[in-house]
C-alpha cells in the first residue's frame, strides 16, 4: 500500500515515509483510544498488528530509513520499534504525531467516528464534543515536517502516526481544504505513504 504525493514545497530536503501503526487492540475492540492517559500505556498492537509489521519489514519496498520518529502512544511506539530494529536504528518520540483527540467520545465505540467526520466536512475548526479541531491537527502535523525540513537534509524519515492525523496531514500537503480529509483514501493499518524528495 504505497501512495506518492507531489511536493507542496519547491524542493524537499528529505523523504518521508508516513506510516500508520499496525492493527491495534483498540482496533480489535472497536473502541476510540485517543487520550494520552489511555493510549500511551495501553492498547498496543494486536496479534494481527504484530504479523502486519513482520510482513511489512520482510517485504520492505521503500528507501532504507535513516530515522524513525513516532507518536508516544503504545501502538505507534511498538510499530516504530519493529521498523527501527529492522534497520538498526533507535526510534525517537515526537508527541506532535499523537492521535487526534476525540474528547467526549474517548472510550466509546469506533462507530462514533463518522458523526465527527460529518462535522469535519462542514467545518475544519469545529470542536464539538471537545474533539480536537482538524485545523489544530494539521498545524501540529505540518510543524513536524517543517521542523525536519529546516534541521536535516538527505534523510529518509519514517513518521509513525495514526489514521486521522496522517489523512489530515496528506490533505494539508496536497493543498486541499482540510474539511475534505475523509475524501483521502483511507490509510489501512501498517500502510506507508511516501512523500518528499
TrEMBL record:
It comes from the Bacteria. It comes from Halomonas llamarensis. SMART domains: PGAM. InterPro entries: His_Pase_superF_clade-1 (IPR013078), His_PPase_superfam (IPR029033). Transmembrane segments: none annotated. Signal peptide: none annotated. This is Histidine phosphatase family protein. PANTHER family: PHOSPHOGLYCERATE MUTASE FAMILY PROTEIN.
